[in-house]
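W.,

You were right to be curious about this one. When I first looked at the sequence I had no strong expectations either way, so I just let the prediction run and decided to look at it fresh. Below is the sequence, 410 residues in total, followed by the output.
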Amino acid sequence: MAPYASDDTTSGRRKAVRYVVPVTVVGVAAATIGLVPALADSGDPDLPKITAQQLIEKIAASDVEQLSGTVKITTDLGLPDLGGLAGSLASAGGGAGDGSSADPSARLTELASGTHTLRIAADGPDRQKVSLLEKAAEYSVIHNGTDVWGYDSATDEVYHSKSPEGADAHGKENGGTGAEQAPTPKEFADQALKAVDGTTSVTVDGTVHVAGRDAYKLLVKPKDADSTVGAISIAVDAKTGLPLKFTLTPKSGGAAVVDAGFTQVHFAKPAASTFDFTPPKGAKVTEADDAGHSAADRAKGKGGAGLPGGEEFGGPDGLNVLGDGWDSIATFDTGSGSGLPSASKSSGGEAGAFGDLLGSFGDKATGKFGSGTVFSTRLVNALITDDGKVYAGAVTKDALVKAADAAAKK
């Protein structure tokens, strides 16, 4: 990766910034980072001057392990309206296990669109709780020690899995704080900053009040012509270094694709009872192993009850990453040997009809790789070739075609 550079300093990238690819692709759907604007107080605080490099180091050095609060999440990728299809898939478990509505790997995909309110709590790497608040119900994921519970109050269903010893709720080895494992602005800011390199402009863009806290604003702008990211603004708590608000706008302009932030935040230790959970009497309980998710799968972050916001939240086998930073492209082979199913190519069954419907949302693309279909959102584009390969990332259609052409030469 190229050395870190910013508008404020020409010093090389320091060890405090250790980052990887910001985009994860799951099947034909590409999800990206995101959360909603916190309610900012009027008037900007008067804070000591700080450079962009110092502010990034402040984020990296943040040691917040205990917090509670409310986060509002809005994601606007510009996806076509599929009516109740997405909700139906989530309720059916998205094809995972036996379709338990309490399975986090399916239920938390709801955060990929619309506006949601989350209540969060964290107490170190072993205890986190995230509750998705709905009109007449609540969905919660609770990580307490080696136990991970998902509970859907609307259906009275429970999903239970075990984290391997020494692993967090993602199923990965401990190495971060509890706050980093919950879907907070810090989790998403960390993902975004992984792409910071010599092709990035990084500046301090004034100060702001967020959730009653004084904060600096870090402005990150990719210079790479292939990137679809316009700018990322991160409000960083002046005292703790914890990101309080995250906003990502696309290069194409318009409203933010994702906006994230605390509306309330407290740094006191949550009560131990916050993370206690006992299945309600009469609730349907599904064990992860019974649903076909082995401990080994959960250790790899596949099919288990990981919290959203990181590359551990599922993903296809054989996933490779081409390039790095802002122009990185995730690619994998579906193994089908063909692209979208088509009613015109088959007997016209449900699979073919669905393939034709899906194809109507995409644009045809050709190159040395052959032909395929490009599906676009306001941020992420994905190319599915007619021989079953997928290329996706927060890059332009032309960048995907070039990647597919380069792979075809090998």
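Here's what jumped out at me. Residues 320-409 form one domain. And, maybe more interesting for your project: The helical segments are 52-61, 85-91, 104-107, 178-181, 185-193, 295-299, 350-359, 397-409.

Coffee later to discuss?

I.
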